Automatic annotation (TrEMBL):
GO molecular function (one): ATP binding
Protein name listed in UniProt: Putative glutamate--cysteine ligase 2
EC nos: 6.3.2.2
Taxonomic classification: Bacteria, Bacillati, Actinomycetota, Actinomycetes, Kitasatosporales
SUPFAM superfamilies: Glutamine synthetase/guanido kinase
UniProt keyword list: ATP-binding, Ligase, Nucleotide-binding
Organism from which the protein derives: Streptomyces zagrosensis
Cited function: ATP-dependent carboxylate-amine ligase which exhibits weak glutamate--cysteine ligase activity.
Keyword ATP-binding: yes
Matching InterPro entries: GCL_type2/YbdK_subfam, GCS2, Gln_synth/guanido_kin_cat_dom, YbdK
Amino acid sequence: MNGSGYKAGHGTHTHAGPPTVGVEEEHFLVHPDSRAVEPAGPRVVARAAEALGDLVSGEFTDYQIEVKTTPCTTPAELHEELIRLRAAVASAAAAEGLRVCPSATPVLGGAGPVVVGDHPRYRTSVDLFRSMIDDYAISALHVHVHLPDRELAVLVGNHLRPWLPLLVEMSANSPFHGGRDTGYASWRSVIRGRFPCLGPPPYAESFAHYQQTAAAMAETGSMPFAELPFWDIRPHPQLPTLEVRCMDVPADPADTAALAAVTRALVVTSAGLVRSGDPGPRTCGELLRSAYWYATRDGWWGRGVDALSGAVLPAPERGIRLLEHVRPALEDHGDVEVVTAFLGRLSRRGSGAHRQRAVAGRPGGLTAVVDDLTSLTASPRTTTVGAVEESVPASPQWRSYQDVPPEAV
């Protein structure tokens, strides 16, 4: 239930080559002693804006801030910008006696109703959903791919829908919430799943059909704004982009850059299918929401429905099938190495959820988890975006959240 910050002034794609891609990352502010979230967003945003201007803003709760990149051509360019943005907001937070935490839910703190940001759109959501908002403190990654043709964009969204659970698994980074282990890899996705206006978009015959569905939901009171749907794929209302919104904010900015490369390749591949006359698979909405739930629980190394065949397969195998599906686009963009390296990192150490649980098994427990996460904004250059750490193994060393050893990170 948040807006977009992708920089519209730089959003026009006027050159040959891959479409530009930009991202928004949402982060929590935490106290260095308690490691609990702090409602200091307006202060930190004001300070960070001195260096970043409108590349930083507030979010749905005052526990959060958001950074947004300008449109980038390569994952390496995007990675460098994310490093700069994370370092700048970490510096601004430090000046306020706080730290910046890239987790999709509060690891510690956040008990009681959230402190909602001072924005009319946010207040409308509170009025509509009432106590469902009480724990709605979640931080996402949103990826924008330049695609100004909205008719094309909604049909591309039909092709993207079956891949959304795998993107959730790849990005899962919210196993803890308010001091407890939820047993899920992406608790953020569970929180979002209870809202009628969040989650996978419906199949759309056309942009007009898409608009009609949003208007009907707004008329019944299940969506705050028909002109600003909150579905996990949407042609952005003000920007020339297709926005994918299903992912947890990753701990490592290199993973953010790689997920942006994956998303762009999926959009380009799907656009090619639409142009050839394929309007996209009519994936059953109920089965897709079930696949979402499975993805949120088990994350990477969980089993789920393959978007291409319908077979139930482990996530690493589905990741390899995704790589092959979008390989021509990745080759055209020069991104094969980036995505292959990302799959290698996932197979070596899992997603951010596995990282959090591994650190939680060390001395310090959840305070150590927060310290590890905040270190990734204070010193964000932890991984080279295209570094191949190891090949993708057929069988990971551990498969469930209970099995992650502390030495894995």
